[in-house]
Amino acid sequence: MAQGGGHEEQTFNEFYTEVKEIEKRDSVLTSKQQIDRLLRPGATYFNLNPFEVLQLDCDTPLEQIKKKYRSLSILVHPDKNPDNLERAQQAFEIISKAYKTLENETTRKKCLEVYEEAKDRTDMMIAEKKKKLKKEGKYDGVPEDEPAKYKHAIYVMVMKLFADIERRRQQLEVRDMEERKRKREAEIEEEEQRDLQKEWQKNFEESRQNRVNSWHTFQAGSSTSSGATSSSAATTATTVKSKKSKKAKYTSFNPPKIKPETR
């Protein structure tokens, strides 16, 4: 019994020592070091995981998440880093975004689902690896049998899943942007067609009035010409008739018949 109690005490001491080492490591991170951590090469990939940003385990209670957020936000706040203002602002926004994600119950639940899926996939991967080694007669355990390496395998899978989610989000965003662009182009084309139709209708109405005016002018000119032609024709007819009357007057004379001479 005493041996069992001694083993438990040793385990606890090891755990306590590990926790203190983690706390000491985090405590020595200055404002500049935290800013550098959040903006290091490849940080965009790591910062997709809000727990990674706040340096927390996925099972951390919300109250502890709030405390960690407050301490980190003060550490990287632009007011505390006037000589590194721009980078501090970027780091502060990253921490704020991570906290808002975990503060919201719905989005925090989605993050926890990522961890659950990562664990399931890791377990499946390990099982497949063991199965393959056993089939080949080479099984002598796998590295992931060690707790630290198993935890690291889950960590890597979590990062991969968050990256996959972000990639799908970007693809949907691009697709949505292209769809909005296509719809806007269609709307612009439709508006241009309506404007062209209005312009054509306006020009048609104006030209129709011009055609009507031209026709009226033509009709008025035709009537005047017809009156002049009729008058000229009447005058010509009267002159011809007068000449015929005179001709008839002269041609109505009959010369006397010549009598035959008698001897």
Number of helices: 8
- Measured as a percent range, the helix fraction is over 70%
Q: Between the first and last Cα atoms, what is the distance in angstroms?
A: 206 Å
Query: Helices and strands: which structural class?
Result: mainly alpha
Overall 3D shape: elongated
Q: Spans of 5+ residues with little confidence (pLDDT < 50)?
A: none
On the 0 to 100 scale, the average pLDDT is 81
Q: Assembly type of the shown chains?
A: single chain
Q: What amount of the residues lies in strands? A: under 5%
Beta-strand segment tally: 0
- Radius of gyration in whole Å, from Cα? 53 Å
Order of helices and strands: HHHHHHHH
- Biggest pleated-sheet summary: none
